[in-house]
Amino acid sequence: MTEFTKLTIAGARDAIAKGELTAAELTEAHIAAVEKVRPLNAFLVETPEKALKMARAADARRGTTDAGVLNGIPLAIKDLFCTRGVQTTAGSRILEGFTPTYEATVSANLWRAGAVMLGKANMDEFAMGSSNMTSAFGPVESPWRRPGDNRALVPGGSSGGSAAAVAARCALGATGTDTGGSIRQPAAFVGIVGFKPTYGRCSRWGLVAFASSLDQAGPMTRTVRDAAIMLRAMAGHDPKDSTSVDRPVPNYEAALTGDVRGLKVGIPKEYRMDGMPEEIETLWRRGIDWLKAAGAETVDISLPHTKYALPTYYIVAPAEASSNLARYDGVRYGLREPGESLDEMYEATRGAGFGAEVKRRVLIGTYVLSAGYYDAYYNKARRVRTLILNDFRQAYEKVDVILTPTAPSEAFAVGEKMDDPIAMYLNDVFTVPSSLAGLPAVSVPAGLGAEGLPLGLQLIGRAFDEETVLRVADVLEQAAGFDAEPAFLA
Q1: Global pTM value
Q2: Residue of 119, 111, 108, 115 lying closest to 23 (CA atoms)
Q3: Catalytic residue among 78, 120, 196, 417
Q4: Contact 189/163 with Cβ under 8 angstroms?
Q5: Are 72 and 116 in contact (CB under 8 A)?
Q6: What is the distance between the alpha carbons of residues 167 and 484, in angstroms, rounded to a whole number?
Q7: What is the largest CA-CA distance in the chain?
Q8: Which of 248, 329, 345, 458 is 20 to 30 A off residue 194, Cα-Cα?
Q9: Domain coordinates of the chain in residue numbers?
Q10: What pLDDT was estimated at residue 440?
Q11: Non-local CB neighbours of 70 within 8 Å, separated by 6+ positions
Q12: Class of domain 2-259+476-489
């Protein structure tokens, strides 16, 4: 049954449709694989009985008009998505035991497309982190190891559990969420594809909020084609979400023509940063050569406000987090700690329920929103955010997509950088600008670094032009020919 876990979503879909494989067989193989990867702590909740029930229903639909684009495909769901009847914690003690009575729109769309839920994937608490070290339920370990070094590595964050599950071949795909890079950076660290669609393309309804103007759901898969298939099922207008955009969802898979001749690819000079490892620069140059060889034209461009993106993000995102997390007070749901007064109960509940990183960001956010600092910090950050968006708009007058590295380094060991928040925040330096601008972006595995660990290249596109981003990503993926597997699978 292990051969079933080596399939892609596209391969499994076709095999099920042809009757060469049943959804139940495929699901049983992945349930066994989930059990095998428990040492990685990738899942917070496993749902084998639910998965088998959904798989048998998928088999009953095979060959009918009710069979969706993901009929019988087993997926992991990041624990930020509310799932009816299944615990949802957002990786936080303050929500431990919370079982929603409703389903997030994105996961409901996946179930409507026939997908099967294997369980809820571990994550950084409230999606705040770049390592999956901030989860209240213990860190996720990457399935990768440095050759000759058995130290556990981080899978990136915040969607680290989703990334580890896909890379370890225990889920054919997974949902992630991206606020400042939390789909793309972990995808780069574990050698998979991570796609952040345009802000508004996927509904945020039923998603536990971190920063409402930035959060966006997206697929994490083994191939670009799989990401295209999964995104088609996830996306769509949702009247329950005021930020959801009402426009048709294309057949993204049909966009993968393999032809990028004549497309113009922007190469921003600001992404060559001081201290960037030579291997990142080398991989970037290799990506440029691959696209040139495929017939694309590269154009040097400037995104002058890039250097302000990270500080802007770490004002805007904590400010929105401080507002969103105010709802966790011990009154209505989740953890409640006793106190002699209402204020003491609030303080005790939040003190016990929130981890150190969440407290840090809430404090930063509350500070920048406070009287006397709102204009100096938050309003100024909002204006800079507009300048960053304008940089991209001007660039897209000359180019079709932009190519950059995904992350400034390979994966690091569990426990490294935890004492230096600034060093941790720098993991998002290449992903944050497109998040602030709300643009679609994808990370594609493109090679191994000097320490034998995956490295990714990022493509950023125009708003709602996911098709072009996926088309170029597919060509980049084919040129890279990345087929390395993590040590966990050996």
Answers
A1: 0.96
A2: 115
A3: 78
A4: yes
A5: yes
A6: 10
A7: 70
A8: 248
A9: 2-259+476-489
A10: 98
A11: 9, 13, 110, 113, 114, 115, 229, 230, 233
A12: alpha beta
From 6, 9, 408, 462, select the one nearest 188 (Cα to Cα). Answer: 408
On whether the CB atoms of residues 315 and 377 are closer than 8 A, the answer is yes
Phi-psi region of 101 (alpha: psi -120 to 50; beta: other; left: phi over 0): alpha
User: What distances in angstroms separate CA 77 from CA 200, 223, 351, one per listed residue?
Assistant: 20, 18, 28
352-407: per-residue pLDDT in tens?
A: 999 999 999 999 999 999 988 899 999 999 999 999 999 999 999 999 999 999 99
Name the residue type at position 388. Answer: I
Express each pLDDT in 54-87 by its tens digit. Answer: 999 999 999 888 889 999 999 999 999 999 999 9
Contacts 24+ apart (CB under 8 A), 45-49: 45/79, 45/86, 45/87, 45/119, 45/120, 46/118, 46/119, 47/86, 47/117, 47/118, 47/119, 47/120, 48/118
For the question of residue 182 being annotated catalytic, the response is: yes
The reply to whether 302 belongs to the active site is no
Cβ distance 90 to 47 under 8 Å? no
- Given 92, 135, 142, 158, the catalytic residue: 158
| Residue 323 bears catalytic tag | no
**Cα(143)–Cα(331) distance, rounded to whole angstroms?**
39
Question: Going by DSSP bridges, is the β-strand pair 74-78/173-178 parallel, antiparallel, or unpaired?
Answer: parallel
Instruction: Let me know: does 160 contact 124? Beta carbons within 8 Å.
Output: yes
Q: Is 346 exposed, middle or buried (0-12, 13-18, 19+ CB in 10 A)?
A: middle
Distances (CA, A) of 313 to 299, 307, 432, 437, 480: 27, 11, 7, 11, 31
